[in-house]
Design brief:
about 60 residues; alpha+beta; Putative small metal-binding protein; DUF1059
Length: about 60
């Protein structure tokens, strides 16, 4: 299981994501970035920042 906290890359955001795979996390985060942060497109640098902060849960 994987987990990501948006606040790790967007200060002040309290949304967290838990999913079985990194791809599932990235899909959810992309929709969140569009819907809640107003990003029409997620820059590659942001994707890499998110990837670097995804945790693997025991």
């Amino acid at each position: 299981m994987k987990q990501f906290a948006c606040g790790d890359v967007v200060p002040g955001c309290r949304k967290t994501f838990t999913a079985p795979t990194e791809a599932d996390i990235l899909g959810s985060v992309g929709a969140h970035a569009r819907d809640d942060h107003g990003l029409a497109e997620v820059p590659a640098e942001l994707v890499e920042a998110v990837r670097g902060r995804i945790l693997t849960l025991a």
